[in-house]
Amino acid sequence: MKKIHWGILGCANIARRAVIPGISASETGVVSAIASRGSEKAKQFAEELKIPTAYGSYEELLADPTIDAVYIPLPNHLHKEWTIRAAEAGKHVLCEKPLALDAMEATKMVASCEKAGVVFAEAFMYRYHPRYTMIRDVISSGEIGDIRGIHGTFTFNNAKDKGNVRYKQEWGGGSLYDVGVYPISAARMILGEEPQAATVHALFSKEHDEVDMMASGILEFANGVALTFDCGMWAAFRNTLEIIGTDGRIEVPSAFITEQNEADNFYVFTNDGRREVEVPRLNQYALQADAIGRSILTGEPLPFPATDAIENMKVLDACLTSARERRRVEI
């Protein structure tokens, strides 16, 4: 099979730690180039990760005719510009979440990629892991009855790193952008529908450029079902999802971040007791790369179309408005 040659726009930690190793472990892709705003940093990164080519500018990488696709792990406020420029250069795009700063930006990005005829995906790696197909199968079987609610969490404490890009308001900083998007996207995926309204309460920190360092919210779905969630960057680490039904519930202890060498199973609780569902130990970043690779190589549709990112941004827009204005926002 022909390999997709990937270029990486930026030297972010998520690229080093997870996405580049994932692409390298995939069946369809190989990382062929990396670019930074300075050639020295790009060369150091390339040497560390054994990437053949290093560029001192993003423009140089986009001009490389051997690069088929790019991964964009840049700060959130740069996603729109470099997605559009990559599409115009004929490169397929995997863009880190959140896709944009708002739904309007996301719409323009999707339209640019459609016009250029390139594949475009948002980097929600967890959705490509078979755990979520298995979870949806349990729900479809009727084992836990009708869904009555979902609760999701994603928190960590990095508050001491005051210079972090997550703490720059103009750059799209804040916990809703960074980790709140995970339980929000998961609820939409599991329920297969869009929420109707959002109410969010948040801690905006003067020490961190007034970004939301902690947020708790409720999304209203049809038939009285809701997602309750909390997300934060100044709280103890949690990474969970619970789906509550009329006859049982599903607990996912490591809902979004998984480790290949640890058990990432989920649990089904009913009147018959607790049942542990064994999950394959797979690299979800490699699975993500292969889904995109197959779409590029064979035309296979992505499991999550680019338009899904626009819908997710609409929800995020409502959450941020609710948190800042202290009111319920209809979507």
UniProtKB/TrEMBL annotation:
InterPro entries xref list: Gfo/Idh/MocA-like_OxRdtase_N (IPR000683), Gfo/Idh/MocA_domain (IPR050984), GFO_IDH_MocA-like_dom (IPR055170), NAD(P)-bd_dom_sf (IPR036291)
Organism phylogeny: Bacteria, Bacillati, Bacillota, Bacilli, Bacillales
Keywords: Oxidoreductase
The GFO/IDH/MocA-like oxidoreductase domain, residue ranges: 133-251
Family: Belongs to the Gfo/Idh/MocA family.
Transmembrane annotation, as ranges: none
Domain Gfo/Idh/MocA-like oxidoreductase N-terminal intervals: 4-122
Pfam family, one: GFO_IDH_MocA_C3
Protein name: Dehydrogenase
PANTHER family assigned: OXIDOREDUCTASES, TRANS-1,2-DIHYDROBENZENE-1,2-DIOL DEHYDROGENASE
Superkingdom of origin: Bacteria
